[in-house]
């Protein structure tokens, strides 16, 4: 199924700190120092009740399009989509909370007796693609430099997830964090994965998903000591992290003091041991005819017509990865766009951004082409995104009579450099993977 992102409420971009402060007047307290991943009592589906876990777990909520959501809901049963996308976007979350509590009462979901850290693995046959720790990450003000975002957020999706977390009283989906480790925590994770798994199944994505528990207090303490003083980058889940911080601010502003809202569910992957895959996020502009897009681009960038072969066109795009480059499609033929006019580029780029930021493909695309040359408003209805799959983006554009813009993946070093400089890459610039399977484990914010 093409991973066309769902249409979510839009609005001006902002940081998670600004959003929390604007809505609740504060961004929450500084809850200690350093990177913290705490054990929690995991909530899991009972396979004896639901059967194959592959049939009830899902991709992340924003990779489930409306057609797939409706299909999963129509099938009945206990699919996790009933908790994360129960109705129309922005609604139906009281139903999700009621469903969650009913499933707990009926034994569909069980809560582990003791707190634990969980080891999660995604493997492609014998090759382990990702392995990391699932725990309750301590929420920190951005000024502490412990958890680094690299993208801005929109208020709409944060409000959407806040409504869900408030009704469910749970962190249902982990955010995806990466850090440079290579220490004691990495060794403990690999040691734990040598034992028989707590759960194991092959999902529709073709990957084998496994999970283990770490309850030994000595191992947990060693992990805590190893993580202290490190920092993590948000690879995926900026809107969910902003929601964590907003929920934390709400509770503290209401006088509740410290509590489970000072942590949020996270998967932490050691990038030195299991490097993430960094894919591209392509754009589809359904209201922009391809011929008009091409004609308007010709005066601003160099345009090269390519053979009508996607593999050959992608090779040409890859060869041009040392500079801003885009593959334009949706109509007849494919066209490579490179070397934007320096004067036109300088005129539209935000002057307060670093040269590295101004040279990012997505920055050039957003400011020079989408907003400038094409005059397309940036919202989820005018600019759709498709993760990783260029063929799916082209198909979507052709179906809509619009234009597809295929991009090269962003370089990992650029993401780290921009985040380390206190900047944000443009929204939807990166697609880190593989993304964790949702519904394998989650965390309650209130006693069961």
Report on the architecture of this protein.
The protein is built from 16 helices and 21 strands. The strands form 5 sheets. Strands 1, 4, 5, 6, 8, 9, 10, 11 and 12 form a 9-stranded mixed sheet that branches. The protein has a 6-stranded antiparallel sheet with strand order 15-17-16-19-14-18, with helices on both faces. Mean pLDDT is 88; it is low at 1-11 and 19-31. The protein folds into 2 domains: 16-275 and 433-444, no CATH class; 281-408, no CATH class. By secondary structure, it is α+β, with helices and mostly antiparallel strands.
Instruction: List how many beta strands DSSP finds.
Output: 21
Q: Give the rounded overall mean pLDDT.
A: 88
Shape: globular
**Helix content estimate:** 25-40%
Gyration radius over CA: 22 Å
Secondary structure tally, helices: 16
Strand content: 15-25%
Distance between the termini: 35 Å
Structural class: alpha+beta
List low-pLDDT spans.
1-11, 19-31
Describe the largest sheet. Answer: 9 strands, mixed
Question: How many domains is the backbone divided into?
Answer: 2
Short characterization:
By secondary structure, the protein is of the alpha+beta class. The protein has 16 helices and 21 strands.
Throw out a few tags for this protein.
alpha+beta; 6-stranded antiparallel β-sheet; 9-stranded mixed β-sheet; globular; 22% strand; 448 residues; 21 strands; 16 helices
Write the layout of secondary structure elements.
Blueprint: H1 16-24, E1 37-38, E2 43-45, H2 47-50, H3 66-74, H4 81-84, H5 93-106, E3 109-111, E4 117-124, E5 127-138, E6 147-148, H6 155-168, E7 170-171, E8 175-179, H7 184-192, E9 199-202, E10 208-214, H8 217-227, E11 232-236, H9 238-253, E12 263-270, E13 277-279, E14 281-285, H10 290-297, E15 302-306, H11 310-319, E16 325-329, E17 334-338, H12 342-348, H13 355-358, H14 361-373, E18 384-387, H15 390-400, E19 403-406, H16 412-420, E20 431-433, E21 443-444
């Amino acid at each position: 199924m093409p991973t066309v992102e769902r249409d979510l409420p839009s609005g001006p971009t902002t940081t998670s700190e600004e959003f929390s402060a604007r809505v609740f007047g504060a961004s929450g307290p500084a809850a200690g120092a350093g990177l913290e991943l705490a054990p929690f009592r995991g909530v899991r589906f009972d396979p004896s009740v639901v059967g194959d876990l592959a049939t009830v777990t899902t991709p992340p909520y924003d990779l489930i399009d409306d057609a797939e959501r409706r299909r999963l809901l129509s099938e009945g049963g206990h699919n996790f989509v009933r908790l994360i996308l129960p109705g129309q976007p922005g609604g139906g979350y009281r139903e999700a909370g009621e469903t969650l509590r009913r499933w707990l009462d009926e034994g569909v979901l069980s809560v582990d007796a003791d707190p634990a850290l969980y080891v999660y693995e995604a493997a492609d046959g014998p090759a382990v693609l990702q392995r990391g720790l699932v725990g309750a990450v301590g929420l920190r003000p951005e000024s502490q430099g412990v958890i680094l975002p690299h993208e801005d957020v929109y208020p709409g999706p944060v409000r959407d997830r806040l409504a869900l977390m408030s009704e469910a009283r749970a962190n249902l989906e982990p955010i995806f964090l990466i850090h440079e480790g290579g220490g004691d925590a990495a060794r403990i994770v690999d040691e734990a994965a040598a034992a028989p798994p707590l759960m194991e199944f092959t999902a529709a994505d073709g990957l084998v998903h496994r999970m283990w528990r770490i309850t030994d207090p000595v191992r947990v303490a060693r992990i805590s000591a190893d993580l202290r003083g490190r920092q993590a980058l948000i690879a995926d889940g900026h809107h969910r992290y902003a929601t964590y911080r907003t929920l934390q601010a709400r509770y503290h502003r209401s006088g509740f003091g410290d509590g489970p809202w000072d942590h949020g569910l996270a998967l932490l992957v050691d990038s030195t041991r299991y490097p993430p895959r960094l894919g591209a996020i392509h754009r589809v502009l359904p209201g922009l005819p391809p011929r008009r897009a091409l004609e308007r681009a010709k005066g601003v960038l160099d345009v090269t017509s390519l053979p009508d072969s996607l593999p050959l066109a992608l090779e040409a795009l890859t060869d041009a990865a040392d500079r801003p480059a885009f593959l334009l499609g949706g109509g007849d033929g494919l066209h490579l766009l490179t070397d934007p006019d320096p004067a036109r580029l300088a005129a539209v780029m935000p002057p307060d951004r670093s040269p590295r930021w101004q040279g990012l493909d997505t920055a050039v695309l957003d400011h020079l082409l989408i907003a400038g040359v094409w005059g397309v408003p940036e919202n989820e209805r005018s600019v759709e995104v498709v993760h990783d799959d260029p063929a799916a983006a082209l198909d979507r554009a052709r179906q809509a009579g619009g234009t597809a813009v295929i991009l090269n993946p962003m370089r990992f070093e650029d993401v780290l450099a921009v985040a380390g400089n206190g900047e944000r890459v443009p929204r939807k610039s990166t697609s880190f993977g593989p993304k964790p399977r949702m519904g394998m484990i989650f965390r309650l914010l209130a006693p069961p």
